[in-house]
UniProtKB/TrEMBL annotation:
It comes from Lepidothrix coronata. Pfam families: fn3 (PF00041), PHYHIP_C (PF19281). May play a role in the development of the central system. Residues 22-131 form the Fibronectin type-III domain. It comes from the Eukaryota. SUPFAM superfamilies: Fibronectin type III. This is Phytanoyl-CoA hydroxylase-interacting protein-like isoform X3. Gene3D superfamilies: Immunoglobulins. Belongs to the PHYHIP family. GO terms for cellular component: cytoplasm.
Length: 346
């Protein structure tokens, strides 16, 4: 495998022959979460002898990776010599939002089945893209299948420690500020590490119709009437669908005031939902009153993209337990779950 520029192949059964042109000036383009196009320049001498290209593709080493973990197996692709640029596609060896190195050599297949090859090209680095709207729509459709029936809700709520609310009052003029979403959920999610928002819950207990008394996120709960955050002046987007090696699943939704920076960010990247008619969270008017429903069989994580003043709701201590084990902070998605994965990089 290539590790430095000009390394010669050590593969058995492959002869070396300097006459084949060495690829140079490699260009990577049209990058998606599980494909890219590659092209390069090469001298015209012996060009007509080229029958195949060898592409050496490797995940870039992460300095912080676990040294005891098995290393990813390098991928050597053998492709027929097609006109450039050539498309490389495959969710079994390309993951979204991942850094790779790639090197190329030209090859000529001989009558006996062996190859003569050029020297390796220089090594190029690139990073695959996030899920596109097409991929997210596939996730959305899978989430719809298990969302279940709709239950009424009246409030959104956010649990934190007492110190958090004290800090908001003292340093932020009583307004909770959006912060960058962590890396929980699907690895290809376009909102992880990019979208700024405030995390809210909205699930209710089946028997009471009220928020559960337990929480993974702190003993103090801020509650705000649903219509203060979610109404006809806001847009609703589907953000992600995942599980953490558990039987229950999470759906991330984004609520963004129309025309806000958060709304513009989501409009470009996420599938938009009809606020009156979708499988997860609805807002409709009945007899002049706004009525709200949420899906029963998934846990909704709602991100609101603007600041929220504490005076719009109330803060009180919960009577239940703080269940830290249920926290989804930076939680990794189960890549083997057939319910919430799609056939692209995980």
């Amino acid at each position: 495998m290539a590790t430095t520029e000009g390394n010669k192949s050590q593969d058995s059964g492959i002869a070396e022959m300097e006459e084949l042109p060495v690829p140079h000036n490699i260009k990577i383009s049209n990058i998606t979460c599980d494909s890219f196009k590659i092209s390069w320049d090469m001298d015209s001498k012996s060009k007509d002898r080229i029958t195949h290209y060898f592409i050496d593709l490797n995940k870039k080493e992460n300095k912080n990776s676990n040294k005891f973990k098995h290393k990813d197996v390098p991928t050597k692709l053998v492709a027929k010599a097609v006109p450039l640029p050539m498309t490389v596609r495959g969710h079994w060896f390309l993951s979204p939002r991942t850094e790779y190195t790639v090197a190329v050599q030209t090859a000529s297949k001989q009558v006996d089945g062996d190859y003569v090859v050029s020297e390796w090209s220089e090594i190029i680095e690139f990073c695959t893209a996030d899920y596109s709207k097409v991929h997210l729509t596939q996730l959305l459709e899978k989430a719809e299948v298990i969302a279940g029936r709709m239950l009424k809700l009246s409030v959104f709520y956010r649990n934190q420690h007492k110190e958090y609310f004290d800090y908001i009052r003292e340093h932020h003029g009583n307004a909770m500020q959006p912060s960058v979403k962590d890396n929980s959920g699907s690895h290809g999610s376009p909102i992880s590490g990019k979208l700024e928002g405030i995390f809210f819950s909205c699930n209710t207990e089946f028997n009471t119709g009220k928020p559960p008394q337990d929480s993974p996120y702190g003993r103090y709960r801020y509650e705000i009437a649903a219509e203060k955050l979610f109404n006809p002046n806001t847009n609703l987007y589907f953000g992600d669908f995942y599980c953490m090696y558990t039987a229950y699943h999470y759906v991330i939704l984004v609520i963004a005031p129309v025309g806000s920076p958060g709304d513009e960010f989501c409009k470009q990247r996420l599938p938009q939902l009809n606020i009156k008619d979708n499988k997860f969270l609805t807002c409709d008017e009945e007899d002049g009153v706004m009525v709200y429903h949420h899906a029963q069989d998934v846990i909704l994580e709602v991100i609101y993209t603007d600041p929220v003043d504490l005076s719009l709701g109330t803060v009180a201590e919960i009577t239940g337990h703080q269940l830290m084990s249920l926290s989804t902070a930076n939680a990794k998605k189960d890549p083997s779950c057939k319910t919430c994965n799609i056939s692209v990089g995980r």
